[in-house]
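for the recovery benchmark. tokens below, seq after
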């Protein structure tokens, strides 16, 4: 049995049971919470390896839980959302959620997302090139997954780090949004291409002195993005 601990935070019992069943079949240890207060109580006692989080919860909603978690840890978060919740979905990504799945969804698709997020979180980005990258003010260490600007350590999510490492490790190479979706998110039809835009914006806000006029992560209009050293 895999000792990887996953919290499923979902107020619809039928969805929570199905998701938990599939995750347990995949070998994970699963705990469930049905409302925001119960979820916070569980998280205060012990942080899991990953959280599957419904956005619409009683008492404390998924956005508040995402904000609470990101203030304390970089535990990966996969959001469960309805199609009509696009604004909330984007807000969740802005706050640091790593991925999302839109209801109704395939439980097996969710399990695949869980595996992909855990693999990216735990593994070094590229084992063949594991030396830190240093660009004057910016320092990126792939082994510790620590990023610092002017010696100040930044709080990056797993996806933000992977995106930054890919771009910085292939400086001046232009990537389209589809290429970044494929490399970082596994290239699923369920992922909105705006996810890339949201993560690029968050990265700029964290590593750039002037996010509106970025030095490192630059837009190549009509094509995609590149990293300038």
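predicted aa per position
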């Amino acid at each position: 049995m895999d000792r990887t601990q996953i919290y499923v935070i979902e107020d619809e019992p039928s969805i929570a049971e199905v998701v938990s069943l599939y995750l347990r079949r995949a070998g994970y240890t699963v705990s469930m919470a049905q409302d925001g207060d119960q979820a916070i109580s569980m998280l205060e006692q012990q942080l899991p390896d990953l959280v599957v989080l419904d956005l619409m919860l009683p008492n404390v909603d998924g956005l508040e839980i995402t904000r609470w978690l990101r203030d304390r840890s970089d535990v990966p978060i996969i959001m469960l959302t309805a199609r009509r919740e696009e604004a909330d979905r984007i807000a969740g990504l802005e706050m640091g959620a790593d991925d999302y799945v839109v209801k109704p969804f395939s439980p097996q698709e969710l399990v695949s997302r869980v595996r992909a997020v855990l693999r990216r979180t735990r593994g070094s980005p590229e084992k063949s090139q594991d030396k830190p990258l240093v660009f004057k003010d910016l320092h990126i260490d792939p082994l510790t997954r620590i990023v610092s600007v002017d010696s100040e350590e930044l709080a990056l999510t797993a996806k933000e780090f992977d995106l930054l490492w890919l771009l910085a490790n292939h400086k001046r190479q232009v990537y389209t949004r589809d290429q970044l979706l494929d490399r970082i998110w596994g290239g699923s039809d369920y992922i909105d291409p705006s996810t890339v835009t949201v993560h690029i914006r968050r990265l700029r806000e964290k590593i750039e002195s002037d996010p509106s006029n970025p030095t490192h992560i630059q837009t190549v209009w009509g094509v995609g993005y590149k990293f300038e050293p």
